[in-house]
Specification:
alpha+beta; 5-stranded mixed β-sheet; 4-stranded mixed β-sheet; 3 helices
Length: about 160
């Protein structure tokens, strides 16, 4: 018989709280329809799970594994302050599920303006933001520390 310890739940709750604090500093609004990437694993994990995430493992990969197939995958790499692919506009349809994966050679933070979503970018480790594009308009996707505009997201 497997027994789940409170430490597993505490680690997940602590990770969710820390992520929420980081996003508040980026101006996240209180709109309940906007979900942060770290919120999904806490509610998606079944109570009968027998393994708890290790403290050094980001909750982000489990978001990708537990979500439905994305409509649009956007991957960006940053090396020596150069954005690849080069900065431009990316158009998606309203209602599409969008996944943005960014890998930077320096630690930073990813931010999607208008949706007020963000992700930590440890140096050399991909950061992920996944969301439903339910607001139309033009939204900048940038890094906070290095202030690089990665691309402009157009939702129609």
């Amino acid at each position: 018989m497997s027994v789940r310890t409170p430490a597993g739940r505490t680690s997940a709750a602590l990770a969710a709280a820390l992520s929420a604090l980081l996003l508040v500093g980026c101006g996240q609004d209180d709109d309940p329809s906007v979900a942060t990437p770290s919120a999904a694993p806490t509610s998606a994990a079944p109570p009968s799970a027998t393994t708890a995430p290790t403290p050094t493992t980001s909750a982000t990969p489990s978001v990708a594994a537990s979500t439905p197939a994305v409509d649009r995958e956007i991957t960006v790499t940053i090396a020596k302050r150069r954005v690849d692919p080069p900065t431009g506009r990316i158009t998606v349809g309203k209602g599409e599920l969008v996944r943005i994966t960014v890998t930077s050679d320096v630690s930073d933070e990813l931010h999607v303006h208008g949706y007020d979503l963000g992700a930590r970018l440890p140096a050399g480790t991909p950061g992920l933001v996944e969301f439903r594009a339910d607001k139309t308009g033009l939204f900048e996707v940038e890094t906070h520390e290095t202030e690089l505009v990665l691309f402009q997201l157009v939702v129609r």
